[in-house]
Amino acid sequence: MARLPYLDPKDAVPSARAAYESLPDPVNIFRILLHMGESYVPMLQLGSKILTAQKLSPILRELVILHVAHTSRSDYEWVHHKAHALRDGVTPEQVAALESGQISGPCFDDTETVVLALADQVMTDVKPTDDMLAEARKMTSDQEVTEVTLTVGFYMLMARLMETTGVDMDEPPGQELIDALSLD
Amino acid sequence: MPRMPYPDMDSISEVARQTLESMPVSLNILRMTGHLDEGCPALLKLGSKILTTQDLSPVLRELAILRVARLSGAEYEWVQHVAFAKDVGVTPDQITALDQGRRTDNCFDELEALVLAFTDQVVNSVRPSDLVLQNLREKLSDREVMELTCAIGFYMLMARIMEVTGVEVDPPGGIEVLEALNEKNKT
Questions:
Q1: Max Cα separation, chain B?
Q2: Is B10 a member of any domain?
Q3: Number of compact structural domains in chain B
Q4: SS3 labels along chain A
Q5: Contact B160/A at CB under 8 A
Q6: Cβ contact (<8 Å) for A164 and B7?
Q7: pTM score
Q8: Does the beta-carbon distance from A164 to B165 stay under 8 Å?
Q9: Which of residues 105-124 of B touch A (CB under 8 A)?
Q10: Which CATH number goes with the domain that contains B131?
Q11: Using one digit for the tens of pLDDT, what is the confidence trace for A59-94?
Q12: Cα distances (angstroms) measured from residue B85 to each of A77, B67, B77
């Protein structure tokens, strides 16, 4: 049982209700977030941009999200993004490493190792060290460094919404739902 | 000097450039988010909704944001939000207490102290305790609890963008920013 009750879509603000009703087979998190009022639509749209419109590669993005989910002890985020990550090309070995808290090792290439180290510092310390930032900027563009930061912060936010509400676990969604989050 | 250069306005994507040009104020943090391409308008829209459309009282929202700013060591966030906080009615005593890292002080009423305790738990532990959540739900609606959690998480995210990029502190916008965002929301 969730810690906060789910909101009946008809009791949500009209913009949130319309967005929710346009989603194909929405999973529980999108229902419990209906409490958010006018922030519901931009929240979904920001998630959509992160998942579908970044320069950062899908594999790097999902590695970062899984590390945030694991460190935040958010089972819901972990289970849903494990499915997403495997679909996008993260290997089972990489998932197993992240599940045991490892962010370096033979299953990660140089770029993956640097991006995970950056994500770890941003999550834990807020401000990465000068050396870390310089290393990341040598490996990748400023746009991608900023996108890693956005991804870390957004999934820290999502983990907090999931854990505060105690949203009930359900089956991870397919790509069709992810594509619909743009609300276009 | 920031730690990362501001994006070149002539080479960022059209959607990011138009978003920044349409903002009612020019702030270094807004300019820096131009690096995010299509993420830029989405991020700024969420921030604007948090600041202008919540049921949660602005005083409770700004107390939580100031606490997040101090826990995160984000000076830019602190300076900008001290101005917002004063303008919406957070008292000088409360700002001083938060500046010194105190969240239980007789300048905070019972609900304010509870919101700050909840903020600490959400920031540090992700999942607030059953007791704190239950106490908060006796005083706030579920929508307000969700909005508070969203504000905390969003300003944790912003603190990270500020500290990674090292955006330079500029004069805070205060109430004029909030009023301009309100006006923009109507159109």
A1: 52
A2: no
A3: 1
A4: CCCCCCCCHHHCCHHHHHHHHCCCCCCHHHHHHHHHHHHHHHHHHHHHHHHHCCCCCHHHHHHHHHHHHHHCCCHHHHHHHHHHHHHHCCCHHHHHHHHCCCCCCCCCCHHHHHHHHHHHHHHHHCCCCHHHHHHHHHHCCHHHHHHHHHHHHHHHHHHHHHHHHCCCCCCCCCHHHHHHCCCC
A5: yes
A6: no
A7: 0.97
A8: no
A9: 122
A10: 1.20.1290.10
A11: 999 999 999 999 999 999 999 999 999 999 999 999
A12: 33, 11, 12
Q: CA A78, A137, B37 angle in degrees (round to 5)? A: 70
Task: Delimit the domains of chain A by residue range.
Answer: 57-163
In chain A, which residues have their Cβ closer than 8 Å to the Cβ of B42?
Answer: 42, 45-46, 48-49
For A39, the closest of B5, B43, B50 (CB atoms) is B50
Q: Does ipTM top 0.85?
A: yes
Whether B149 contacts chain A with CB within 8 A: yes
Residues in chain B: 187
pLDDT of residue A144: 98
Pairs of CB atoms within 8 A across A/B: 149
Q: Average pLDDT, whole number, for chain A? A: 97
- pLDDT for B149 equals 98
Say if residue B185's pLDDT is above 80.
no
Question: What domain range includes position B95?
Answer: 56-186
B123 → chain A, closest CA residue: A160
Reported as a single tens digit per residue, the pLDDT across B66-102 is: 999 999 999 999 999 999 999 999 999 999 999 999 9
Residue at B51 is within a domain: no
A161:B150 CB<8 A: yes
Maximum separation of any 2 CA atoms in chain A, in Å: 51
- B95 within some domain: yes
- Please say whether the structural domain A57-163 has been given the CATH code 1.10.3720.10: no
Among the partner residues B54, B153, B160, nearest to A149 by beta-carbon distance: B160
Detail the DSSP E strand segments found in chain B: none
- B183 vs A: CB within 8 A: no
Q: Report the chain A residue with the minimal C-alpha distance to residue B32.
A: A146
Q: Residue B56 contacts by C-beta under 8 Å, 6 or more apart in sequence?
A: B140, B144, B147, B148, B151
Q: Is residue B62 in a domain? A: yes
Contact A132, A121 (CB under 8 A): yes
